[in-house]
Amino acid sequence: xxxxxxxxxxxxxxxxxxxxxxxxxLQQIRATxxxxxxxxxxxxxxxxxxxxxxxxLVHFGxxxxxIGFYPTPTxxxxxxxxxxxxxxxxxxxxxxxxKPMPFDLIRAIVKFRVQENLDKAAAKKxxx
Length: 128
Fold this sequence. Notes:
Elements: H1 11-16, H2 20-36, E1 41-45, E2 48-52, E3 56-62, E4 66-70, H3 72-77, H4 80-83, E5 87-89, E6 92-96, H5 103-127
Antiparallel strand pairs: 1-2, 2-3, 3-4, 4-6, 5-6
């Protein structure tokens, strides 16, 4: 018997798989990312919501106790002071579900990652 949840095909399906209070947080995170990266594409990668713009921009996902936010190692390195109060690892941050979501921090990190990806794409284009 397969007890695994079906893999979501898109971000809407991913979000729909969570309780209403978590769905609301995930939609707010999605809107926050979309606000800073209006040209980014939405997809599912690593079974998580992912935004791409000239490569991976950020991933995020819901877990039992937290929201995982994955802005790549450069996204966490740049914001070391701001994320110091959160658990995480190289390229990941855990935002506890029982605390207010730091939407301003998410917005700043996404803005940084957008510029980083645009700069990399421009540099790559110049090399050709």
